[in-house]
Amino acid sequence: MNFEFTIGGTDGGARAGRLASAHGVVETPVFMPVGTQASVKAMTADSVRATGATIVLANTYHLMLRPGAERVAALGGLHRFMDWPGPILTDSGGFQVMSLSGLRTLDAEGVTFRSHLDGARHRLTPERAMDIQRLLDATITMQLDECPRFGVSETDAEASMALSAAWAARSRGAFHPRPGYGLFGIVQGSVFPALRERSSRTLVDLGFDGYAIGGLAVGEGQETMFSVLDHSVRFLPEDRPRYLMGVGTPGDLLGGIARGIDMFDCVMPTRAGRTARAFTSEGVRNLRNARYAEDARPLDPTCDCPACTRHARAYLHHLFRAGEMLGPMLLTWHNLRYYRQLMARMREAILAGRFAEDAGSVRAGWLAAKEGQ
Amino acid sequence: MNFEFTIGGTDGGARAGRLASAHGVVETPVFMPVGTQASVKAMTADSVRATGATIVLANTYHLMLRPGAERVAALGGLHRFMDWPGPILTDSGGFQVMSLSGLRTLDAEGVTFRSHLDGARHRLTPERAMDIQRLLDATITMQLDECPRFGVSETDAEASMALSAAWAARSRGAFHPRPGYGLFGIVQGSVFPALRERSSRTLVDLGFDGYAIGGLAVGEGQETMFSVLDHSVRFLPEDRPRYLMGVGTPGDLLGGIARGIDMFDCVMPTRAGRTARAFTSEGVRNLRNARYAEDARPLDPTCDCPACTRHARAYLHHLFRAGEMLGPMLLTWHNLRYYRQLMARMREAILAGRFAEDAGSVRAGWLAAKEGQ
Questions:
Q1: Contact (Cβ atoms closer than 8 angstroms) between residue B259 and residue B281
Q2: How far is Cα B154 from Cα B163, in angstroms, rounded to an integer?
Q3: pTM
Q4: Widest Cα–Cα separation across chain B
Q5: How far apart are CA A158 and CA A161, in angstroms?
Q6: Residues of B with CB below 8 A from A43's CB?
Q7: Looking only at Cα atoms, what is the longest distance across chain A?
Q8: What is the rounded distance in angstroms from the CA atom of residue B146 to the CA atom of residue B105?
Q9: Interatomic CA distance for residues A161 and A186, integer angstroms
Q10: Which residue among A147, B124, B171, B264 has its CA within the 20 to 30 Å range from the CA of B304?
């Protein structure tokens, strides 16, 4: 099967697509659960599948350090390792080298850093990033990029963007094409429209199987993020998938879809689930709140996940108060199911030409819980 | 449905039985997974069912403190609360009052103690223990007993046994009979054969739906435990289920079955699973051990659980090294499945008249892993 993206319908800027790959088909818009260390936290692979997820993300930085890319390859690759035969997208490791590792030294060739686990010295170059992701057997490989902090000056952002563009070209050259596998470039340029445009154009000239928007959701706020998105997406080809990295809340996803984004990933639903926060059709609920101690109602009456169909809010509250692992397990499951159902509903709405109405009605529902979204 | 125990077959002292109850049928010998706080740790109710478990245990002491028996009752009882429509056995709270609570004062009427959670003062009497277990809607209620420490003198053990016997009578009087619900008495008497005999005879005279052997697996060692078992079981009626409380390792279970025990419970498989220890047909394996880092083989080739059929030992090793919750989740699942399959195999062996041979062959297998059993 070739790596192929087809658009089944559009509604305004929003697109309903279909991504075919060596490991299966992904309907878009899609949210990808994050399996940082080859495990979606608090979920078995079967329970991830039960949420309806069709593609997951894994982190190159974490996996190159532990258990190591060569070891994963020797064990048959990431799909077999984590029991996920479906598509897997791996990031390039660049973002986490910047945010997690110690004593990093950036040069034109790559980045040298110390592991946050044991202080051991490692080096990541565009070529090594391609090599690692090939060893992991990623369905979708991301170019190595450099992600500047929010608040960077335009001059520094330009230099950083230029470095990412140079690494995009080298990633492109080092990527080993295989049928059904894809390589994505990453648009950078911080919050500066001119830089975003240049970054997009450069990547499109190189030619990638898909395009990611990087460097957002790093503190700039939703309004700025949406405005930067507008300045990035318009320069990207219609016939390639677009992926907004590390985003976001359900509201961010609706805004991203409206602006032509097809793919999203974020730790938000899984991390929130571990800290008792549930995304629901009535907004965010914090299950540790004493108001739920005797609440016999389902968490979200519109949801079909085990947390909602089998238990009362009072039970979920009890699990978090008692420190039971099942609390994070059930709420992670629920949040991933909620994200999945939101994406499925938006896809249907796009195909039916009522995206704006449906997104509006979803947003209106979020106000009901009154715990804020 | 009446609370009814029938013996389908025996082999030496070992029995294959069938316990019918208001919440379903339990084939024996049976191991009951422990759901201390209305949750079998690291497992959903569905995954507990998937291991083949037919009955679970919950702890009165923990649940009376949090969320509270009245609250569980208001929410429809424990079965609905924890999504376990099947049989549930609750202990009486006595053991944990002794082991967990602060500043306890024992008198002839009951025990006053401070909660280990918030220091609040509580009182447990035989009558209140019956009341709490009725509010929880326990299928099998345990009498309130007093469990002396290992090493107690015979004089003190006798006094404690006499107190437990008096509480047995009061528990019997306070228990509200309902069709399909049962009340068990608890044999005490520490390691003293004469006391065990007197305790057993007293309980049998009172008449219970089943008989538990308490006060064992508290440090006396397996040989002493088996010897005490011999001195307790012989005085119990053939036609009632016998339950060895808080036991044990797979080896303890085989020894208990040989001595006529029908029911067991223990935190061992779940607690071990959370600390990377797996019970397998080849003995105990500690998955944190570096020897598993590149081991592509299944944890236990004879097991059909997700940990064994979907993953390599190297993946389980990785999960524990990386601190992923999925490690405890998968290993708990495996251990409960192992315990369940061991019980099912022994039941079959008893019915086929080859219990000793099959138990011997299981024991022989445990030597293979060479990490010790």
A1: no
A2: 14
A3: 0.97
A4: 60
A5: 5
A6: 326
A7: 60
A8: 12
A9: 10
A10: B264
Report DSSP state, residue A30. E
DSSP for residue A299: S
**Cα–Cα distance, B96 to B104 (Å, whole number):** 11
Q: Do B314 and A67 touch (CB under 8 A)?
A: yes
Give residue-wise pLDDT tens across range A159-168: 999 999 999 9
Do the beta carbons of residue A64 and residue A132 sit within 8 Å?
yes
Cis omega (within 30 of 0) for bond into A87: no
Is A91 marked active-site? yes
How many helices and strands in chain A, by DSSP H and E? 15, 16
pLDDT value at A372 more than 80 = no
Angle, CA of B184, B186 and B187, to the nearest 5°: 140
Token representation of residue A147: 């992600």
Q: What's the pLDDT band for A371 if we cut at 50, 70, 90?
A: low
CA distance readout (Å), A215 to A92, A161, A166, A244, B114: 13, 10, 17, 9, 54
Q: What is the ipTM of this complex?
A: 0.97
Question: In terms of CA atoms, which chain B residue is nearest residue A70?
Answer: B294
Contact: A330, B44; criterion CB under 8 Å = yes
Best mutation site among A326, A329, A331 for testing chain B: the one with the most B CBs within 10 Å?
A: A326
What pLDDT is recorded for position B95?
87
Q: Cis peptide leading into B151, omega within 30 of 0?
A: no
Catalytic residue, candidates A137, A145, A252, A265 = A265
Contact B296/A at CB under 8 A: yes
pLDDT digits (tens, 9 = 90+) for A145-154: 999 888 999 9
> What percent of chain A stands above pLDDT 90?
93
Q: Do A315 and B38 touch (CB under 8 A)?
A: yes
CB–CB contact A45 B310 (8 Å): yes
Confidence of residue A203 (pLDDT cuts 50, 70, 90): very high
Q: To the nearest whole angstrom, how far is the Cα of A356 from the nearest Cα of chain B? A: 38
Catalytic annotation on A252?
no
Domains of chain B in sequence order: 4-266 (3.20.20.105), 275-365 (no CATH)
Question: Is the distance from CB of B270 to CB of B336 less than 8 angstroms?
Answer: yes
Shortest distance between the Cα of A8 and any Cα of chain B, in A, equals: 35
What digits encode the pLDDT tens for the residues A75-122? 999 999 999 999 999 998 888 888 887 788 999 999 999 998 999 999
Active-site residue, selected from the candidate residues A11, A91, A252, A300? A91
Q: Provide, as residue numbers in chain B, all residues whose Cβ is less than 8 Å from the Cβ of A86.
A: none
- Of the candidates B44, B62, B294, the beta carbon closest to that of A71 is on B294
Can you tell me the distance from the alpha carbon of B142 to that of B265, in angstroms, rounded to the nearest whole number?
Answer: 13
B333 C-beta neighbours (distance < 10 Å), count: 26
Find the DSSP H helices in chain B. Answer: 45-50, 60-65, 69-74, 78-81, 94-100, 126-136, 154-174, 193-206, 222-233, 250-258, 268-274, 306-310, 313-321, 326-351, 355-365
Residues of chain B scoring pLDDT < 50: 372-373
Q: How far is B290 from chain A (nearest CA, A)?
A: 12
How far apart are the C-alpha atoms of B201 and B345, rounded to whole Å?
32
Note whether B78 and B58 are within 8 A (CB): yes
| Cβ separation A314–B38 shorter than 8 A | no
Task: Give the per-residue pLDDT at A212.
Answer: 98
Other Cβ atoms closer than 10 A to B163: 18
For B87-153, strand residue ranges (E) read: 88-90, 102-106, 111-114, 121-124, 140-142
Six-digit token pair at B193?
Answer: 């054969």
Predicted confidence at residue A162, as pLDDT, reads 97
DSSP state of B241: -
SS3 B349: helix
